Amino acid sequence: MLHRLLPKLAISALFAGAVAASAQAPFHLEHRWVIGGEGGWDYIVADSAAHRLYITHMTKVDVVDTDTGKVIGQVTGLTRTHGVVLPPGSKVGYVTDGGANVVVAFDLQSFATVAKIPAGTNPDGATYEPVTNTLWAFNGRSSNATVIDLAKMAPVATIPLPGKPEFPQADGKGTVFVNIEDKNVIVRLDAKTLTATATWPLTGCDSPSGLAIDTTGMRLFSVCDGKKMAVTDATTGKSLATPTIGDGPDAAGYDAKDQQAFSSNGEGTLTVVDAGKPGYPVVQTVATEKGARTMSYDPAADKIYLVTSKFAAPDPANPKARPAQIPGTFTVLVLGR
Prior knowledge:
Layout: H1 2-22, E1 28-34, E2 44-47, E3 52-57, E4 60-65, E5 70-75, E6 81-85, E7 92-97, E8 102-107, E9 113-118, E10 123-129, E11 134-139, E12 144-149, E13 154-160, E14 165-170, E15 175-180, E16 185-190, E17 195-201, E18 211-214, E19 219-224, E20 228-233, E21 239-241, E22 249-255, E23 260-265, E24 269-274, E25 282-287, E26 294-298, E27 303-308, E28 331-336
Antiparallel strand pairs: 1-28, 2-3, 3-4, 4-5, 6-7, 7-8, 8-9, 10-11, 11-12, 12-13, 14-15, 15-16, 16-17, 18-19, 19-20, 20-21, 22-23, 23-24, 24-25, 26-27, 27-28
């Protein structure tokens, strides 16, 4: 009996090992890089090829080496930074300076300012559109988008929007999408005609902020207040699902290889949604740190970067006020598998 059973046991063991190897490991906190400095922050962008992380940090952009966790440079002379755009193959990066109403072009080697391009009022989220070689800066206070021709480094159009724009995404084929925070909708824009072509309601979503895109399956992932992620068909505008996420989200990400969508939540969690299964189930809630609500996913390294800071205790006399940031505690969190 034993000699008949052993081959079966061996086959079973091999099968179990194959299943275990194919299952995606969960994310966990790998590193905490304290980079210091003072002031608030907004979006961050990972440059996979250069092994760098660009972090908008109040009046500057911190550039971090993702191999060492050290700051290797800064883009300075800014007033209130929001979003960073790194067009593929370019020697120049771009940052929206909401306090100065400009998009600042900077050299990716020296980090020196190359140009200051006028935008609308308080340019915030931005994205690169490759078909037209344009940068789209979305202006939070003037409720419009400034389209910049990168060959000329000059604005070529201003497109009105129905409300306050938040984060945008481009599909790489000539279409740009943006969340409208105060209207709970997504606007679709044609980069060739420079017009808005559709406005889609985000069912079950309040105050959409961060936006991620699946360019293969043509799906959009908006993170919303009320602990919801709105999944939208990027072709038809149809609502596909509203999985539950953590509280206070501000950024989203998407892993195309494993079909997972991410939400970074200010409560101190990161939500992982399986976008490859019916119902879009939440497969992991990762403990991060309070305030870590912006993030960037690096597909080459399969790592997620978040930023936060330590905060003083709330003021008993004004418990609703935002706690003061403790100087010198600004930190990058690195999640890996």
